[in-house]
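REVIEWER CHECKLIST
Item 1: Sequence provided? yes
Item 2: Single chain? yes
Item 3: Sequence as submitted:
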Amino acid sequence: MSLRYHVVSLAAVFVALGVGMLVGATMIGDDGILRQQEAMIERLRLDFDKLARDRDRLASELAAALRFQEESLPHLVGGRLAGSVVCAVVLPGVGSEAVRNLSRVIETAGGRVGSIATVSERALAEVDPLEMAGWMNVLVECDAAKVKAMAGSGLVHVRVSAKEKPGSVVVIAAEPDPAGVSQRAVGAFVTSAKASGLRVVTGWLSMPSQKGQRDRGEAHALVVGAGTIPGAVAAVLALAGADGLFGTPPAQVMLPAVAGSDGV
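Item 4: Structure as written out by the authors:
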């Protein structure tokens, strides 16, 4: 729920309480209680006015931050992926907005999303990592007949917008699961892509800060919070050549360090 809803609801409750107490005190006729209630209502009014000002200030700051985000994108990633074709593998639980954000930032960087392979829940339950590695090979080869056959299984939906072979791969997953199913699937795609000589970046929408899950594994880079525009920027910079762990915690830095500067 929005901050506006909470402010209005809280104010309504306090005002109703104050009015009720004021009416009750008036009926009883106790001047001392009446003055106390009037003071309480005035304090509530002042608190409400402050909350309203805070709400307006935060809304203005958010609008400015979103505007800065939009206008700074070309300066952050412009030309980083000029002429590059990227293959995206999307695991279950990743929404369409996350994919749109990543695609948009890749295009702003001058690249193209050549294909998007969306893996189904059933695939995670039924398909072993070896077969998933085979899917990655099909996407890398960009063989139309094999891609059509793979999509025909109903286990993975494939959308191809460029017939050129990709130069890099980004694998996006929602969150590591206790059973390790998502991690194994990600690992299969990453290992296969690297064996084909491609640059590989993994992106997780979120990741618990636990020992053993901070390592990026076989991928060149790992981005946490990849569904957001800042996370997509980090993923693009990683696709362009930055190695490491970026994004939201457990990552310690959101973006790769600027070339020539100190930092991780």
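Item 5: Key structural point noted by reviewer: The longest helix spans residues 31-77.
Item 6: Recommendation: ____
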